[in-house]
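Chapter summary example: a protein plus glycinamide ribonucleotide.
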Amino acid sequence: MVLSTGYNRVRTAVFISGTGSNLKSLIKFSKSKKSPISVDLIVSNNSKAIGLNYSKKFKIKKKVLNFKNKKLSENNLILILKKNKIEMICLAGFMKILSKNFIKKFKGKILNIHPSLLPKYKGLNTHMRVLKNKEKYSGCTVHFVNSRLDSGKIILQKKVKILKNETKVSLAKKILVQEHKLYSKAIMKVFNL
Ligand code: GAR
């Protein structure tokens, strides 16, 4: 990624819609000595997202935009990101699809984590579909975001084995544990660290 890390950490916004466990692990990572990023803004489309509580806990600014009018929300968001000098965006359980125009504005600077071994199982309900197809393995992927859903260049993946009595809940849990490790590893890779 062509970003001026220099001495300062890359100012990053994390977009969430729900629990925010990936957000929490990104914040923890950002506070480590080796991290090239700082988490300076939390963005959500959902005012009830539990993950928004990390704003208070870690004293990080938050913004909620309802995305009912996507164009309006995104234009507003672009201004907020500029004002906060945000250089990189990490999508972490963000359940809205960003427009081509928005993605173009942050070309090559938006990362996403997805709970499957992409290019397999793009979109929603991944664990259910994986189990239905009797897959032996699943996992998670961190990738760059482009204008096609879950299709940007893959940065890193982690495979997990599916056990005999696996349920979508147990699989989701198992993959989430790996997601928390993978996202920061992928960020290190993006910065050649
Ligand atoms: C994670 O499993 C993430 O990969 C997934 O939502 C969960 C969010 O958990 N994202 C997607 O499905 C995106 N299409 P979290 O809120 O605890 O980080």
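Key point: The chain has a mean pLDDT of 96.
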